[in-house]
């Protein structure tokens, strides 16, 4: 088995223009949880053939990887590719919006725009509503944050984030500093 793994990786290294060899190496690294190497080989595959790469459906994985690395521009690029490949997936718009909320400085208007697109697809998406509240808090728009919060309470009253978000909205209304809760 180890010989086969080494052979697959060597084939990818020896054939940097072979899409299938890069994909195979990425798959092996993904299976053993080595995401940095997975991304390295997926990027090579993408550069060889973006159309074939799109068939893998790995753009969202790439976006999430770079998001976790706090490389928000790279994450944004991959989430945009994922949205292009699957424009009906509301969660991809929310993930893209998160890249705008987390970067320094944040871009709440861009985040709100993406979240609104997600909510057009799924108006009851609690994850989207949670991030909409955060984006409005970053803009210091207490009224809009409260409206989004009320929508969240109606759609997902059992959300474990309700009390934290309620405190955040109350602080915003009172003009106190606001801390965005960690996810």
Report on the structure:
- The protein is an all-alpha fold.
- It has two domains: 1-56, Serine Threonine Protein Phosphatase 5, Tetratricopeptide repeat; 87-177, Tetratricopeptide repeat domain (Serine Threonine Protein Phosphatase 5, Tetratricopeptide repeat).
- Helix content is 75%, strand content 0%.
- It has helices at 2-14, 19-31, 35-48, 50-56, 59-68, 72-85, 90-102, 108-121, 126-139, 142-155, 162-173.
- α10 (142-155) runs antiparallel to α11.
- The longest helix has 14 residues, at 35-48.
- The protein is elongated and about 65 Å long.
List the keywords.
Serine Threonine Protein Phosphatase 5, Tetratricopeptide repeat; 183 residues; mainly alpha; elongated; 2 domains; 0% strand; 11 helices; single chain
Helix content: over 70%
CATH class categorisation of the largest domain: Mainly Alpha
Put simply, the count of helices is 11
Low-confidence runs: none
**Biggest β-sheet description:** none
Label the CATH architecture of the largest domain: Alpha Horseshoe
Distance between the termini: 39 Å
Oligomer: single chain
Counted beta strands? 0
Strand content: under 5%
| Overall geometric form | elongated
Structural class: mainly alpha
Q: Secondary-structure element sequence?
A: HHHHHHHHHHH
CATH topology of the largest domain: Serine Threonine Protein Phosphatase 5, Tetratricopeptide repeat
The Cα radius of gyration reads 20 Å
Specify the CATH homologous superfamily of the largest domain.
Tetratricopeptide repeat domain
**Domain module tally:** 2
**Mean of the pLDDT scores?**
94
């Amino acid at each position: 088995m180890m010989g086969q793994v080494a052979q697959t990786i060597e084939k990818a290294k020896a054939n940097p223009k072979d899409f299938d060899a890069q994909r195979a190496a990425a798959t092996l690294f993904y299976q053993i949880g080595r995401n940095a190497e997975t991304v390295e080989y997926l990027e090579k595959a993408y550069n060889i053939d973006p159309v074939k790469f799109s068939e893998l459906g790995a753009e969202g994985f790439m976006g999430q990887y770079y998001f976790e690395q706090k490389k928000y521009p790279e994450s944004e690029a991959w989430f945009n590719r994922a949205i292009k490949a699957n424009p009906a997936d509301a969660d991809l718009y929310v993930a893209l919006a998160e890249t705008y909320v987390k970067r320094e400085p944040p871009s709440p208007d861009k985040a709100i725009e993406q979240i609104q697109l997600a909510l057009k697809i799924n108006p009851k998406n609690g994850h989207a509503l949670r991030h909409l509240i955060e984006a409005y808090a970053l803009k210091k728009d207490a009224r809009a944050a409260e409206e989004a919060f009320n929508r969240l309470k109606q759609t997902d009253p059992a959300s474990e984030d309700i009390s934290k978000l309620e405190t955040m909205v109350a602080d915003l209304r009172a003009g106190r500093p606001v801390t965005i809760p960690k996810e």
